[in-house]
């Protein structure tokens, strides 16, 4: 099921994000990886998750796909926060840089995404994945296509 369509395509993107916050709604991958939206404002969002052993790669650290997913959420939701009703987006490109490995000892991490620039057809965003002490684990830039629903 399309979560945002279920919430209401008549709402702006920011209103959809606020409804997700109020009702603790998450898309399937958010449920699977236990990623929570914790802040949403105009052009900026914050998500939180706790890395654990179920996310480990064969090397004994958290798989990079977890970081990439959190950063992709942050970049996409930042764009969603600027969408009027009946407009949506799709990621064109996500470039991730891994700065430090995560383990279960890392504790909660936050992905903060924000708009760099927003045009009529394309948005550019950036996101950072940090722990509670502000240590940087990964960062990303993303290009997103804006389109009608």
Automatic annotation (TrEMBL):
<dbReference type="InterPro" id="IPR003736">
    <property type="entry name" value="PAAI_dom"/>
</dbReference>
<dbReference type="GO" id="GO:0047617">
    <property type="term" value="F:fatty acyl-CoA hydrolase activity"/>
</dbReference>
<protein>
    <submittedName>
        <fullName>Proofreading thioesterase EntH</fullName>
    </submittedName>
</protein>
<comment type="similarity">
    <text>Belongs to the thioesterase PaaI family.</text>
</comment>
<dbReference type="InterPro" id="IPR029069">
    <property type="entry name" value="HotDog_dom_sf"/>
</dbReference>
<dbReference type="InterPro" id="IPR039298">
    <property type="entry name" value="ACOT13"/>
</dbReference>
<keyword id="KW-0378">Hydrolase</keyword>
<dbReference type="InterPro" id="IPR006683">
    <property type="entry name" value="Thioestr_dom"/>
</dbReference>
<dbReference type="Pfam" id="PF03061">
    <property type="entry name" value="4HBT"/>
</dbReference>
<feature type="domain" description="Thioesterase">
    <location>
        <begin position="60"/>
        <end position="136"/>
    </location>
</feature>
